[in-house]
Amino acid sequence: MTELIKTLTQIDGISGDENKVREFIIQEIKDYCEYKTDPLGNLLILKKGKNRASKKLMVDAHMDEVGLIITSITSEGFLKFNIVGGIDTATLMFKKVRINGEISGVISGKPIHLLGKDEAKTLPKTDTLYIDIGANSKEEAEKLVSVGDSAVVCGSFEQIGSKILSKALDDRIGCAILIKLIKEYENYDFCASFSVQEELGLRGAKTAAFSLDPEYALVLEGTTAADISGVSDSETVCNLGEGPAISFMDRATVYDRDLYNLAINSEVLCQPKRAVAGGNNSGAIHLSREGIKTLAISVPCRYIHTNSSVADLRDCENAYKLAVFMMDKILSGETK
């Protein structure tokens, strides 16, 4: 799965501009399932298995990553931008960016030696930053970039032991696990969605769930891990190397208790997500139509929503194993 995660993370696809990610996924899964793209851009899947399922299950992973969108070009040729998704401004200064997968630039602002005393004590606001692509004028910049173009903060893929470091681990890890399930899981029929615009408020999952109309859903995600120096045990949320995190509640969802108990008591290594915080596509999916019994299986990621997020490959493998376990239980009709 490592090479698949590596390839997926290095494709650029911010919310609303997931085309290249979707095109790659189609090439990976086209020989294993039926698929279609809906008007919003979600990739909807039907995978036939050896047995007819007792319940209809949807497995979801979102394709989009956080990023930037160009809003204007100054007379000097600098690019102003807005943030797409949840990015801390502190992680942006002097980072290399890639626009439309082609044009390189650097996020810049006022140099530290020109900052006033009060300015030096506070983080810069997004509207004070700009992207420098080396253009000398607005006209020169407009030959390369247009307002509305998307950009990502560059982050190469690295592996150190069982740990991986990259941009876009949220949620290309989930996409990799779902691709593997589509290729390898054959016990029962199931449906799936590679959804769009999760980082802007769970938008794609809302329409995908309405279209697929499942009774159950598994959401494959990356989630914040704070198991780092200076953070108390009570605030770590989840730990790398201890398996996928299973949520009982977050700011968008109260998860199905039977599914939570089934997962947390399985023989697959996993851990409870020890905080009521954040949210994922479960928030939209579980409220679709008459309601859907939903569980999130999330791979812990340090420094999430940065270009240097860190995860553990062992957690990715256990997330896949837990997904298979839950799929068997749901699709066979063993769950309530």
Per DSSP, what share of the residues sits in E-state strands of 2 or more residues? 25-35%
The average pLDDT is 93
Helix content: 25-40%
Distance between the termini: 32 Å
CATH class category of the largest domain: Alpha Beta
Main sheet summary:
8 strands, mixed
Query: What is the number of independent domains?
Result: 2
CATH superfamily of the largest domain: Zn peptidases
Characterise this structure:
It contains nine helices and 17 strands. The chain is α+β, with helices and mostly antiparallel strands and 336 residues long. It has two domains: 2-65 and 167-331, Zn peptidases (Aminopeptidase, 3-Layer(aba) Sandwich), CATH 3.40.630.10; 67-153, Elongation Factor Tu (Ef-tu), domain 3 (Beta Barrel). Helix content is 25%, strand content 25%. The strands form three sheets. It has an eight-stranded mixed sheet, sandwiched between helices. It has a six-stranded antiparallel sheet with strand order 5-4-9-6-7-8. A three-stranded antiparallel sheet has the order 10-11-17.
List the SSEs and their pairings.
Layout: H1 2-9, H2 19-29, E1 34-37, E2 43-47, E3 57-62, E4 67-73, E5 79-84, E6 96-99, E7 103-108, H3 117-120, E8 130-132, H4 138-142, E9 150-153, E10 158-160, E11 163-166, H5 169-184, E12 190-195, H6 203-212, E13 216-224, E14 245-246, H7 257-264, E15 271-272, H8 282-285, E16 293-301, E17 309-312, H9 313-331
Parallel strand pairs: 3-12, 3-13, 13-16, 14-15
Antiparallel strand pairs: 1-2, 2-12, 4-5, 4-9, 6-7, 6-9, 7-8, 10-11, 11-17, 14-16
Helix pairs in contact: 1-5, 5-9
